[in-house]
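Assemble and predict.
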Amino acid sequence: MNSTYIIRKVLRALLTVWMVTTFVFLILRLSGDPTVSVLGLEASPEAVEAFRAKWGLDDPVRVQYMRFFSNAVRGDMGDSILEGTSALSSVLSRLPNTLNLMFIATFLTFLIGISMGLIASLYNNTIKDKIIMVIAVAGFSTPTFVVAVVLVLIFSINLAWLPSSGSGTWQHYIMPILTMTIVEAAIFARFTRSAMLEVLYQPYVKTAVAKGLSWWQVIRRHALPNAAIPIVTICGFWIGLIIAGAVITESIFGWPGIGRLLVYSVKHRDYNVVQVIVLLISCTMVITNLSIDIIYGWLDPRVSIDREGE
Amino acid sequence: MEQVTEILEVKNLSKKFHLKKQKMPWQKKKYVHVLNDINFTVNTGEALGIVGESGCGKSTTAKIIMDIYSPTSGTIKFKSNELTGLKGEEKKRIRRNIQYVFQDPMGALNPRIPVVEQVYEPLIIHYGRNIKEQYQKAVSLLESVGMSESLGKMYPHQLSGGQRQRVVLARAMILEPEILICDEPISALDVSIQSQVVNLLMKIREERGITLIFISHDLSMIRHLCDSTAVMYMGNIVEQGLSETVFPNPLHPYTKSLINAIPIPDPRVKREDTIVEGEIPSLLNPPSGCRFHPRCPVAMAKCSKKVPELKILSDGRKAACFAVEKGVVQ
Amino acid sequence: MYNQKTNGNRIVIEKKGVKGKTYIIIFATVWLTAMIVIGFFAPLIAPFDYQKITLSSRLLPPVWVDGGSFTNIFGTDDLGRDILSRLFQSIRISLLVAILGTVISAVLGTTLGFIAAHFRGVVDDFLMMLVDFQASLPFMILALTVIAFFESSLLLFIGLMGIYGWERYARFARGLALSAEEQGYAVAVRSFGASPVRIYLRHILPNVGNTLVVNMTLNFPKVIMMETSLSFLGLGIQPPETSLGNMVGFGRDFILTAWWMAIIPAVTIFLTTLTMSILGDWVRDKLDPSLK
């Protein structure tokens, strides 16, 4: 695989991260004087002066930017206004909770989504296919919070089987994970199905069947590897989906993760925490997309070799 | 005697493209030298043919004349108006006189607009809207190229290749240009249609006295249609002159090999085989001196060091070859 | 082979399928038309003022539950406001935001795509950078960031929705314009003197048309979902204005005692986005199957 390809992708990724950092910085500057929001309107002139001096707010923008950047790189993102501790630690302490949810949900999503999609494609145009597709459309057309509310209604209120918020026991895991999985598995199912359909109707599949290979062999050796490319594409979507899903799901179920922290911090204007979370998410996505691009280059030789002027 | 005037003059035209394939932003860009100091003139009412193999630069020359690309250096004069620096209304007004017939008639037409509208669209652009009159003009023009009004109302995909080419031709004619440049006008057509279109072009030329420039790799068509011929190889004109001079007796080694390769349907006629070996070198790294020298059967030491200039010979033609100059080749 | 196994069933299912699908399309169209009509005439057809607080009639259930009455068909909320009226108004606001957002992002994205394709070079690179930027954050996160730092006003919110999805339009418009410019009719038309504006409006845009419409119909449910999600979190449309997401958000606190407050708007959202998705698929199949 072309090393030029990799280098260019990496450069692009770095550029994107830089852009997001700058964006976060700019937005803070544009949204008004933090002095007012932190100290309040009745602060005395001396307090304002001291605050401005402490945070270097009177320095030219360029200097502030450099300071922001160098601090960020060193991991100093300021303190959480609401908690008093460093914003970074505030975020990191909640990270494991979110990751728990995400891992399990991802695993289930892939499992259910892809197999549903496979089945639907193999039994194309039969009743199995139609049913799966109907469920899938319903699944991804429903906003996450609607699914969550309905689940809460059924399982917490009516049946009183599961707790409706908080975390701690395994029962607490069930509904949040269900919520996230339903929507995403639906999307995966649909996508896998169309990817497989494209491949299955290709001449080389018919040839393989005519040669006498069993269906399983055909799928394993011909169909799946070629369908793998669009499936890798969807992994690119997935990371964005699951993050957005986590934000809503955690908020609804009171799950102590980054998603809920983000919403809370936005509501209460805890800027530093918001900044940290945004940067974290952005880096994650950039790295994911980069990995996907590299996998692409490895899987599909057409992509990485001699591409004229992207 | 009729006054012979120059209508188009191309001088020192060069063009290089840079390779789009980017490596690292700090690596040097590579260039493709497509045209190398081209010079030629066209007289009013003349039919000039430009021939050569794929990649020799003939289409690029036409596109530069049409301002689809801009030249790296050199000038193009239309009736002593310098074309390259023009802007705005003046540009529109002068360039109206030079029109272009595309190689691929399907690609040159908008699939969603009926062809008659596409024929009179140039009129709208240059003279403002006057649909009734313009529609009539388009219809009569289409009829003069052999297409009925009802055909005009159809969409491109509903027409045959030959009909589409006529539409493109009509569209090029509607502004009543003085020069018509045809880029491989018949290569995309079925053989049976080709002669029809060729005759059509000849008819247009006779009736309207238009100057024609033909770009093609089809030597027999050029010989049939064109008064003069220019032969190009790797961005240079290697031989140029009246067709009746060049074709029977080509002098430049490359021209010789091209012309001798034209099949003659008479098995009794014997010809010397001018065997030219090898393939056209890459334009990224053209050979030094005369670009043909690596493949030339009569190459001399000088040929790899200096680029031969296009010089006028005794019979009125021009050739760029040291061997020809020396009289080695007859 | 799998085809043969179900051969018998297959023929029957296909025939049935065609009819079944048509019913669904009809239902979807009816529902959406109803939503649009309701949204348009909301202030006129609502039985009550959606903001009117009647503390004596708090938390009344819908008519089909014990204790409900036809006065308030869908019941009332915790401040005695009529849910049906609030529903109508919410539909109005949510649809308005979604339509405006879709149109703005389509126009914005397509224009940017054309501009990038036409000027190439630095302009194009800049656009690609913006697209990269957009792709590195889920839109929800981006929206939350902006809302965190600026006040959440209706105008800001519509602007945000107007940015949702622009990159898809831009990418497509740019691709089309690039291929059209490099060969074919755009070059031809330019060669006899057409101005770039004319080329875009008269020649390139109509070819974009179909796919543009399809993209818009596919995007519309997503915009609604984004808006309702943000409103649900309390960060979208703010009181005293109401939106479908708002209603579910506030209703959630009362889900034990007054489930209708959350469920009725939730069902409305579900049906609207579902029908819009179905119709979107159908439109796409009709106009531009290549997008499958």
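Chain A touches chain B at residues 4, 7-8, 306-310 (CB under 8 Å).
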